[in-house]
Each structure stands twice: as C-alpha cells, then as structure tokens.
Amino acid sequence: MFNRPRLLLGTARWLVALLPGLCCAPWAQAQSQGLEPWRQALQQTAEQAASQLNREFGASARVMVELGQADPRLRLAPCQRAEPYLLPGMKLWGRSRIGLRCVEGTSRWNVSLPLTVHVFAPALVAAGPLDNGTTLSAEHLRLAEVDIAADQGGVFTDMAALLGRSLARPVQAGEALRSGSLKQRQWFAAGTQVKVTARGAGFAIAGEGQALGQGLDGQDVRVRFENGRTVTGRAVGEREVEVLL
Questions:
Q1: The whole model's pTM is what?
Q2: pLDDT tens column, 54-92
Q3: Of all residues in the chain, what percent are helix, strand and coil, respectively (each to 5)?
Q4: Distance (Å, rounded) from C-alpha 197 to C-alpha 183?
Q5: How far apart are alpha carbons 158 and 179 in whole angstroms?
Q6: Residue 56, SS3 per DSSP
Q7: pLDDT at 9
Q8: CA nearest to 171, candidates 146, 191, 195
Q9: Pick the CATH number of 122-144+154-181 from 3.90.1210, 1.25.40, 1.10.510, 2.60.120
Q10: Which CATH architecture has domain 186-244?
Q11: Helical segments of the chain, H only
Q12: What is the Cα–Cα distance from 41 to 201, expressed in whole angstroms?
C-alpha cells in the first residue's frame, strides 16, 4: 500500500531550499497590485520543487505543484524583502498553503497562499462501478494512474492485498481503492480457538485460547485460556493474536 508519509519530510526540505529565491522579487509593488505580479515567479519555483519530487519518487510518479489564487482584495504595504515559509503543522500533500511574510518594509505583513501538491502514480482502481459490500476479485480491479494525494488513505499497487476484501462504501469506475474504501478485515469470530503469541524483549511464548470477541484487524480482543485466565491482545492474522509485553 502506498501511503503519504513518504513525501512529507522530503517535500519540506526541497520547498524550504527553493522558495527563498522569491525574496528577490520587487515586493514594493504589492501596495497596489496584491500578489498577482509574482505569480509567475511562484509558479516557476513550484515547478522546480516538483522536479525534485520526481527524482525522489522515481519514474513511476508524476508530481505537480499548483499555486492557488490569493484573495483579489488583498493589498499589501511596500516591502523591500519578503520571505516564504512553511506553516507550522501544515502537511505538503494535497491541499496545503505556503506563507509569505515581509521582513524588511514599512509594515511586517504576513499572508499565506493556497498550494496543491498532486502526485500521480500507478494504483489499483475499480474496473467498473462497485456496490457497497462487494467482495473484491481480480476482475473488479485494474491498474491506472491516479492522484494519490487527492484524498485521504493509502492506495494499493499489489492486487493480492485487495483480493477477498469487502467494500465499506460504493466505488465509482476508475476510482482508486483506498484503505478507507474497505471494511475492516475480520480474522476470526467470537468463540474461535486462536493462537496467542506473547512477545517481549528477545523472547516469544505461544499458546492457544478461545476468543471472547470477534478479531478485527489491528483491534484488541480478549482471549480465555483453558485454566480460566484471560489476556487482551491484538488480532494480527487468521486465528492469530499478539500480546506485547
């Protein structure tokens, strides 16, 4: 599955490195024209940043960085030097923003511009419209280029990871299958005999018991052993529970 965290730190680095070139623009013009005169410089910097991401993701990905429109009513005081910056806590994935602040001028203004990061890469999509509850098989899926940053949730490239999974909602033809599209996998039902593996630093102990609840992937479930003792572990596989000590 292809998740977004791979991009975040690298994106921050190349954007920080490339954006300082914007400080050379004639910011004093902003008094009467807002930010529009610098859109070309901003777009060029964004395209350079995209080329850095292309190298980071490899030939299979196509990255685009799109600057949005500033508020047309925006009017700024003259500024001799302004610096771009990354907004604290703002992830550079999908819809985001870039900050611009005046550091040398009559007024220390501070504004932000919308930014959209598109990452187009091969992923599994629905071959046709699929209803809620559909159990996925090979004929339901095909590989296509999608914008993996356009929505929440990781996408899939390995068909084996989707076969037999059930949809939690309807999916349109051509729509990427994401982690949020799927019902949570149930590894076993309540009352099933399961293998329990307790893991600690440098050791592992295995035993068997009866699940007291259904085993949903990654969720806690209680298991009772023959001696009546119960433990709580995490459902990690077909009739498998893991207890971390």
A1: 0.65
A2: 776 677 788 888 888 888 888 888 877 777 777 787 777
A3: 25, 40, 35
A4: 26
A5: 13
A6: helix
A7: 43
A8: 146
A9: 3.90.1210
A10: Roll (2.30)
A11: 5-18, 30-33, 39-57
A12: 54
